[in-house]
C-alpha cells in the first residue's frame, strides 16, 4: 500500500500500522506546527490537542458565518493517490454537515464532497479522489454511514463531484455551510492513500439473502425462512377474522348514505351541493383510496457485476432460476436513468423469491388473494396504476388502467425531460400510436363496471426547469429541427398572426428578416420579458394549442373504444396553466402526482376551483430510512411513526377539499435496497417490505385514516 502525505506517522489503530518499507507522511491538523500552512477564516483553534480513541485531535470551532473555512495549502502540489483520509469527530450532540473541497492544478480540476458527520465517537472520514455517487453504484441513495470495516468505523463519502485527473492536490478546504450557531469539530491527520480503495468495502454485503439491508435492524426484519413463514401465518389468521365487508357500503365501496346521485351503471364524476364526487355504478358517492404498483415483480434489482453487494444470492439454477432474468436500461434518453451504473445484465427478484419461500409453487395465486384481503382490511377501495391486472379482474376492488403511448413519432425537448422528451401530438404517427395504445388498454375491460377509468401516460414534461420553466415547451419547439411537426405548426400559427416576419421581430424584440430564419434547427427563441409582453402571450397560446392537441387526440381515441369509462387525465408532475386547462377540457378528472405535505401544496387548487373539474391525487407518499432501504422517498419524514401521521394528515386534507375525489398512495412494496431496474430508486415508501411483511404501525395508522375518510 502506497501512502503519499506530508510528515509524520499515522496512528497504528487508524490504518493498521506503519511499516519501515512503507513510509507514511501526513498533514497533521492536531500538531502545534504543521509543515503545511493552515488558514482559518471564521474558524478558531481551541485548546490543546487531545487523545481520542487512539487519535490525536485538535478542536476547531466553525463560527456562525456564511462560509467558515479551514484551508490547508501545501508548499507544492502533491500526487494524491486514490483516497483522502481524515481523522475526525463531531463534537456537537447533533449531526453536522462538512464540506471538503479539493483543488487541483488548474481551475477546472477540483473535487467537492459533502458528508453528514453523525454525533458520536471519532472515526475515519474517507473521500475517494475521483467523482463518485450512489447512482454510479446502481442506486439513488447510498448505504448509511459510518460502516464497520473490520472493527474500524469508516465514514465514506459516497458522493463526490468534480474531476481531479491526474489527482494532484494544491489546496484542501474544510467548511460547514452557513451554520446558524458555532459548530465544533475535532480534526487530526489527513493523508492520501493509493491501492487500498474502500469504495467497494462501503457497499459490500449490504443486502442479505431476503433482499433486506444487512447493516440495520427493525421490527419487521426476519432472519430465517421459519420466521418468515411464521409471520405470514399469524397475519393470515388475522385477515380471516377481518373478512367482513365494511358496513354502509355498496358492492363497489360507495357510501349508501349519500343520496340523489345518478345511477349510470358505470363510474362517473358528478357535482352535488358544491362538491365533486366520484359515483359508483350503483349511484353512490365514492372517495377513491388507492395504492399504485400493487404487483409481485417489484423486487427486481440488477446483480450482474456487483455481486459483492449481496450476501448468499441463491443459485441461478433449479427452483431459483425462475426469479432471475436479464435486462438492459442503457439506451434510454430519460433523465431519470442518466448516470445510473450497473444498469444491465442479470437481475434477481427478491420480493417474488420471498413469496415463493412463503407459499411454494402457488405463490402468485396466494399473493393475489392475500393482497386483496389486505387492501380491503386496510380501508383501501381502489387498485391504482401499474398494478397486476388479475387483481382488478377479481372484482373485489375497483381498478384503473394505464394507457402507455409509445411509438416512433417525433418528440420535443422542454428542458425537464426526466422521463424523456415530450411526444409531438402534431405528428400523425402520434395519433396512430395513441389509437393502438387505447385499443390495447381497453381490450377486455370496456364493458367492466369495476373499471374506474384510464390514465394516459405519466408525468410528461409539460414544463422546463428554472424561473422560465413555464415556457420550456415553447422554447424547445422553436429550437427543434426543421422537420419537427410541432415546430411547423408553431411557425404556421405565428405566420397567421403576424403575416410578416418583421412584425413578429418587432413584437418579440429580435432580428428576423425571413420566416426561413425562424425555421432553422437550434433557433434560440427569446425568453419572455417585460419589454416585450407579446412573447409570453404567444408562448401561452402555443402551449394551449399543444396541450389541446395532445389531450383531444387521446380523449377521442378513448371515446371511440370505450364510451363508458372515465378519462382520469395525465398524472401531472410538472405542469403549466395551459396544460391543466386543456386537460380539464378533455378529461373527466384532472390527476396530479403530488409530493408535498398536503395535497393543496402540490397543485393550484384555486385554478382547479375556477376550472370546476374534479381532481384525483394519483401519487403521493412519505418515506423514512428506518426500515431498510436507504432512500426516504420524495417527501421524507424522520421515522415510521411520522409516516403514519403524515398519511393521516394528507388524506384528511384531501377528503375535506370539495374538488378532490381521491388519493392514491405510491407504492405497495418497498423498493429494492440496491435500486429498481428502471432508475435505481431504492426508498422505504411501501406498505409492505421486500419480505411482503406489512409495516405494522404504519398500516394501522393508514387503516384508521382511511376508515375515518370513508365514514365522513
From TrEMBL:
Keyword Signal: yes
Domain of life: Bacteria
Keywords from the named record: Signal
Gene3D superfamilies xrefs: Galactose-binding lectin, Glycosidases
PROSITE patterns the record matches: PROKAR_LIPOPROTEIN
Species, as recorded: Rhodanobacter soli
Name listed for the protein in its UniProt record: Beta-agarase
Signal sequence annotation: 1-20
InterPro entries: GH
Record lineage: Bacteria, Pseudomonadati, Pseudomonadota, Gammaproteobacteria, Lysobacterales
UniProt keyword Signal present: yes
Amino acid at each position: 500500500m502506497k501512502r503519499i502525505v506530508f510528515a509524520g506517522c499515522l496512528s497504528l489503530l487508524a490504518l493498521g500500522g506503519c511499516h519501515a518499507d512503507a513510509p507514511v507522511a501526513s498533514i497533521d491538523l492536531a500538531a502545534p506546527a504543521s509543515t503545511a500552512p493552515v488558514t482559518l477564516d471564521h474558524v478558531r483553534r481551541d485548546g490543546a490537542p487531545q487523545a481520542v480513541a487512539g487519535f490525536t485531535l485538535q478542536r476547531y470551532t466553525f463560527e456562525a458565518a456564511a462560509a467558515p473555512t479551514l484551508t490547508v495549502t501545501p508548499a507544492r502540489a502533491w500526487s494524491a493517490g486514490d483516497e483522502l483520509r481524515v481523522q475526525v469527530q463531531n463534537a456537537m450532540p447533533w449531526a453536522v454537515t462538512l464540506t471538503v473541497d479539493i483543488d487541483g492544478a488548474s481551475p477546472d480540476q477540483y473535487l467537492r464532497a459533502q458528508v453528514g458527520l453523525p454525533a458520536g465517537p471519532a472515526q475515519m472520514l474517507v473521500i475517494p479522489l475521483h467523482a463518485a455517487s450512489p447512482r454510479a453504484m446502481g442506486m439513488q441513495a447510498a448505504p448509511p454511514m459510518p460502516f464497520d470495516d473490520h472493527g474500524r468505523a469508516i465514514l465514506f463519502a459516497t458522493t463526490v463531484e468534480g474531476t481531479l485527473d491526474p489527482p494532484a492536490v494544491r489546496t484542501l478546504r474544510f467548511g460547514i455551510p452557513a451554520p446558524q450557531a458555532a459548530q465544533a469539530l475535532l480534526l487530526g491527520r489527513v493523508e492520501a492513500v493509493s491501492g487500498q480503495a474502500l469504495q467497494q468495502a462501503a457497499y459490500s454485503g449490504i443486502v442479505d439473502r431476503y433482499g433486506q439491508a444487512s447493516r440495520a435492524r427493525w421490527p419487521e426484519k426476519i432472519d430465517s425462512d421459519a420466521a418468515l413463514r411464521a409471520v405470514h401465518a399469524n397475519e393470515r389468521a388475522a385477515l380471516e377474522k377481518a373478512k367482513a365487508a365494511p358496513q354502509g357500503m355498496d358492492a363497489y365501496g360507495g357510501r349508501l348514505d349519500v343520496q340523489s346521485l345518478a345511477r349510470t351503471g358505470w363510474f362517473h364524476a358528478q357535482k352535488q351541493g358544491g362538491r365533486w364526487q366520484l359515483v359508483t355504478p350503483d349511484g353512490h358517492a365514492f372517495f377513491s383510496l388507492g395504492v399504485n404498483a400493487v404487483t409481485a415483480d417489484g423486487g427486481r434489482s440488477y446483480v450482474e457485476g456487483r455481486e459483492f453487494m449481496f450476501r448468499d444470492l441463491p443459485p441461478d439454477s433449479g427452483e431459483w432460476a425462475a426469479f432471475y432474468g436479464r435486462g438492459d436500461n442503457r439506451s434510454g434518453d430519460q433523465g431519470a436513468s442518466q448516470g445510473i451504473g450497473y444498469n444491465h445484465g442479470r437481475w434477481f427478484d427478491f420480493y417474488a423469491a420471498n413469496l415463493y419461500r412463503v407459499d411454494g409453487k402457488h405463490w402468485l395465486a396466494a399473493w393475489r388473494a392475500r393482497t386483496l384481503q389486505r387492501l380491503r382490511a386496510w380501508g383501501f377501495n381502489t387498485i391504482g396504476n401499474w398494478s397486476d391486472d388479475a387483481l382488478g379482474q377479481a372484482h373485489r376492488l375497483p381498478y384503473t388502467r394505464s394507457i402507455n403511448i409509445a411509438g416512433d413519432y417525433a418528440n420535443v425537448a422542454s428542458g425537464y425531460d426526466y422521463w424523456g422528451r415530450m411526444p409531438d401530438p402534431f405528428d400523425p404517427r402520434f395519433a396512430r400510436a395513441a389509437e393502438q395504445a387505447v385499443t390495447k388498454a381497453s381490450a377486455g375491460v370496456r364493458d367492466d363496471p369495476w373499471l374506474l377509468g384510464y390514465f394516459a401516460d405519466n408525468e410528461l414534461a409539460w414544463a422546463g426547469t428554472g424561473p422560465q420553466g413555464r415556457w420550456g415547451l415553447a422554447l424547445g419547439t422553436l429550437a427543434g429541427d426543421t422537420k419537427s411537426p410541432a415546430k411547423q405548426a408553431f411557425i404556421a400559427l405565428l405566420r397567421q398572426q403576424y403575416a410578416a416576419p418583421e412584425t413578429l421581430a418587432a413584437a418579440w424584440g429580435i432580428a428576423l428578416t425571413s420566416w426561413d430564419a425562424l425555421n432553422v434547427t437550434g433557433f434560440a427563441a427569446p425568453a419572455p420579458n417585460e419589454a416585450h409582453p407579446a412573447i409570453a402571450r404567444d408562448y401561452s397560446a402555443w402551449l394551449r394549442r399543444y396541450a389541446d392537441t395532445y389531450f383531444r387526440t387521446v380523449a377521442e381515441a378513448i371515446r371511440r373504444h370505450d364510451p363508458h369509462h372515465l378519462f382520469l387525465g395525465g398524472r401531472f408532475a410538472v405542469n403549466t396553466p395551459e396544460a391543466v386547462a386543456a386537460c380539464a377540457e378533455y378529461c373527466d378528472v384532472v390527476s396530479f402526482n403530488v409530493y408535498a405535505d398536503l395535497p393543496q401544496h402540490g397543485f393550484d387548487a384555486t385554478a382547479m376551483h375556477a376550472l370546476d373539474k374534479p381532481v384525483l391525487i394519483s401519487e403521493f407518499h412519505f418515506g423514512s430510512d428506518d426500515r431498510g432501504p436507504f432512500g426516504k422517498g420524495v417527501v421524507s419524514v424522520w421515522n415510521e411513526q411520522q409516516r403514519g401521521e403524515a398519511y393521516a394528515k394528507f388524506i384528511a386534507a384531501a377528503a375535506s377539499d370539495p374538488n378532490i375525489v381521491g388519493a392514491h398512495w405510491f407504492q405497495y412494496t418497498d423498493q429494492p435496497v440496491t435500486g429498481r431496474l428502471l432508475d435505481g430508486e431504492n426508498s422505504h415508501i411501501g406498505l409492505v417490505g421486500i419480505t411482503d411483511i406489512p409495516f405494522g404501525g404504519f398500516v394501522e395508522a393508514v387503516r384508521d385514516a382511511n376508515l375515518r375518510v370513508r365514514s365522513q
